[in-house]
Amino acid sequence: MLGGSTRVMPTKGFLRMLVVAEIVLGIISIVVSLLTESSLTEPLRAFLDAESEEEITAREMILLAATIPRSRPPAAAFAI
Description:
mainly alpha
């Protein structure tokens, strides 16, 4: 090792806290967007409407697929 310094991996609790913070910030972002949309000027509202009607690009599909967590069904669900 160069310099003799070591790095410590963040704890599970810290990483869990970061995931929760990201989810909470996402929810806050959606709520603020919904609450403030009515105060936008007409050109900005028209822009948002046009943007929401566009088709999803391949890049957006990849990002969406990467952000949706994949959960496994419990093993007991397969028990006969």
